[in-house]
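Input record, target 12 of the design panel.
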């Protein structure tokens, strides 16, 4: 699909949310100097010339969660993960609040 869009003179590519496909699309866009915008959790902190990720960094999300829990005076938290991304940093954030996990 992306290759067809390139043939038609696409000016930028938005997405995808899948990490494996995102890396592939990024590679194509980087090789052809096409801007690539995405909004997905990406733990890779390398600077990319033609790619912008609009998803907040994990440490910013953790800080926002911490602010909400502090504001609401929560004392207990349950964490359910679909994937392991950011797992350790989240635990450290919640432990710093002295919350019961």
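The sequence produced for target 12 reads:
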């Amino acid at each position: 699909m992306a290759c067809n869009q390139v043939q038609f003179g696409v000016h930028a590519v938005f997405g995808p949310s899948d990490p494996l496909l995102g890396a592939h699309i990024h590679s194509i866009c980087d090789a052809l100097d096409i801007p690539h915008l995405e909004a997905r959790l990406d733990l890779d902190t390398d600077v990319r010339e033609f790619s912008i990720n609009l998803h907040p960094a994990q440490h910013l999300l953790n800080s926002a969660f911490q602010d909400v829990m502090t504001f609401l005076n929560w004392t207990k938290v349950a964490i359910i993960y679909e994937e392991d991304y950011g797992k350790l940093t989240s635990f450290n954030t919640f432990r710093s609040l002295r919350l019961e996990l």
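The beta strands are 13-14, 36-38, 51-53.
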